[in-house]
Amino acid sequence: MALYKESGFTITEVMIAVMVLTIGLLGVAAMQLKAINDNYRASALTEKTSVAEQWMEWLINFSRQSYKLGSEDYIGYERLAALDTNPAVGRFTTLSFACDDTEEIRLALKGLGLRPATGELFAEEQLPKPSAKRYRVTWYIDAHAPLENTTTVKIETTEGKSPSSLIFMVSRSR
Predict the structure, then answer these.
(1) Using one digit for the tens of pLDDT, what is the confidence trace for 57-80?
(2) Which residues, at least 6 apart from 64, have a Cβ–Cβ distance to it below 8 Å?
(3) Which range marks the domain in which residue 129 is found?
(4) Contacts by 12-17, CB closer than 8 A, 24 or more apart
(5) Which of 1, 13, 28, 65 could serve as 76's disulfide partner, Cβ 3.0–4.6 Å?
(6) 38 lies in some domain
(7) In a domain, 1, yes or no
(8) Do β-strands 66-69 and 72-75 pair in parallel, antiparallel, or remain unpaired?
(9) Helices (H), the chain
(10) Which contacts (CB < 8 Å, 24+ apart) does range 127-132 have?
């Protein structure tokens, strides 16, 4: 009798190899999904931070200007510090508005008493560019903190659940 020596894989070996390969591919797919979600969150955070930075730069610039409107003279810093209705140090005054529509922004600033030297409302080119998304910007203002003639401002930009915040200080120009 002649014995035939067959070589190859048994069905059990093939099934185990397919199962190991499937588990590995599922792990790679899970990593891809997590990477996509994290990239989306990072992009959204960057965009919110960019909006907050635009407002920070705008407030710093506003606080450095002197304004004359009719018979009224004021320095932007004084007007910004006056927005703090909780004068106790460490107690922020909260002011919030949507920042996706220029007209809404202009009216919100007018309602806060922030006006340009040229009239009642800021022109579109004098304001941060409106966001394509419906962000809500909140200013937390603490006048004369941590020092006299220094105002701490926290700008928080939110859309959905996670906000992005910047904290900075402005001081009276000499």
Answers:
(1) 999 998 888 877 667 777 888 889
(2) 76, 77, 173
(3) 46-171
(4) none
(5) 65
(6) no
(7) no
(8) antiparallel
(9) 11-64, 76-82, 102-111
(10) 127/58, 127/102, 128/51, 128/54, 128/55, 128/57, 128/58, 128/99, 129/54, 130/99, 130/100, 130/101, 130/102, 130/105, 131/47, 131/51, 131/99, 131/100, 132/100
Note whether residue 11 is domain-resident.
no
C-alpha–C-alpha distance, residues 63 and 143, integer Å:
12
Question: Going by C-beta distance under 8 Å and a sequence separation of 6 or more, which residues neighbour residue 99?
Answer: 51, 55, 105, 128, 130, 131, 135, 136, 137, 157
pLDDT tens-digit readout, 114-152: 888 777 888 888 999 877 788 889 999 999 888 888 999
Number of domains in the chain: 1
Separation CA 172–CA 149 (nearest Å): 6
- 32 part of a folded domain: no
| 95 contacts 55 by C-beta, under 8 angstroms | no
What single-letter amino acid sits at 6?
Answer: E
CA 146 – CA 134 distance, rounded (Å): 33
